[in-house]
Write a structure and sequence with these properties.
The protein is mainly alpha-helical. 73% of the residues lie in helices and 0% in strands.
């Protein structure tokens, strides 16, 4: 006699919306900060090329953060880690602009 195992699939986590919101909002601001940091690092490039690279850098960084936010164990962790990454990136950008 064979028994059929009835394993219930894992339920969808309730905090997917919170993670999505963290990835969308904080991911965008993090992508802007990375674009600004790139502008400071690539100051030797021609202005038109640098502007294009800055503009096109935002989308892959934003989508990478947005898709990676679901790997966090909770929505709160997503907000805290991405918020910390934003503070760090914007702080480095601000400090670099002052120097």
């Amino acid at each position: 006699m064979t028994s059929v195992s009835t394993v219930k699939p894992a339920p969808i986590r309730r905090d997917w919306f919170v993670k999505s919101l963290a990835g969308a909002l904080l991911g965008l601001t993090l992508a802007f900060a990375c674009s600004g940091l790139f502008a400071l690092v690539a100051s030797g490039l021609a202005p038109s090329a640098r502007a294009q690279l800055m503009m096109w850098l935002v989308v892959p960084v934003w989508l990478s953060v947005f898709s990676g936010c679901y790997f966090f164990t909770s929505g709160l962790r997503a907000w805290l880690w991405l918020g910390g990454a934003n503070l760090l990136a914007w702080g480095v950008l601000g400090a670099a602009r002052l120097i």
